[in-house]
């Protein structure tokens, strides 16, 4: 099913702008609460929100950069710029959020005991933060579900195989933000109940570990997209069936796909055609098949079809080496 590229970009922009506005407001509130209460967990959560705000700035840059049209130096367009900036967003979460939370936690646990003041302020700010983060998360979930419906996938499959890292990044960071709020609440509450700042420090360390885990997951996903990940399995199988089912095709020898941006897939196919086809017939068949693949899924933007004999041993060996099985 074809996707509306402009609509998808507009929804991504809304998701990022909403998340950025929420994170900036929450960062200020958490910082004020942390300074008033002396809570390391609250200061760690403030750093968490600052990191999330920086992430939204990177994602806005990603959306803007990836919209540039193809030119002579980048004939396939600038779609992968979205993956590059999203990767930097993952790095910023680790560098500015996780490291500060770890530092705050270690200094609280092993440093001098800190008296807690006005814990009610922390509770109020955390409640407001939880509410606002829930609103931002609901928008990210809504966008992901919409994209999953357009691609006829389940929600989990869309998170795993989706080609737009902006919604996935906001989804992960907002989920982590809600978990971070609960950890900070536990740290402040246990500090108040026991009178020991140890719990506050442990909450900060837990927040640091949470952010490090989210940064690792997002970094791995975006690194794979930036290097050149194949299209989602359902699309690959649909392309395979379309090419194999053409009456002029004797065998699909090799099929390679690569995501070259959000809603943009490169398809390279090596096909053994019926030997009775003339050169003119072959040209028309290739054009028709390329059109059918684009009609099959609007994400297919570039199609290259190479006629080859399936009996070529070197080609078969190359396919076997790549996939470790019998080429179709």
TrEMBL record:
Indicate what this protein is called per its UniProt record: Cation diffusion facilitator family transporter
Give any single GO term for biological process: zinc ion transport
Main location class = membrane
Q: Where are the transmembrane segments?
A: 12-36, 83-106, 118-137, 170-190, 202-219
This protein's record includes keyword Nucleus: no
- Pfam families registered for this protein in UniProt: Cation_efflux (PF01545)
Tell me the ranges covered by the Cation efflux protein transmembrane domain, including all copies: 17-226
| Xref: Gene3D superfamilies | Cation efflux protein transmembrane domain
Q: Give compartment(s).
A: Membrane
- From which domain of life does this come? Bacteria
Q: Which UniProt keywords apply?
A: Membrane, Transmembrane, Transmembrane helix, Transport
InterPro entries (UniProt xref)? Cation_efflux, Cation_efflux_CTD_sf, Cation_efflux_TM, Cation_efflux_TMD_sf, SLC30A9
Task: Classify the protein's membrane topology as the record does.
Answer: Multi-pass membrane protein
Query: A GO molecular function for this record?
Result: monoatomic cation transmembrane transporter activity
**GO CC annotation:** membrane
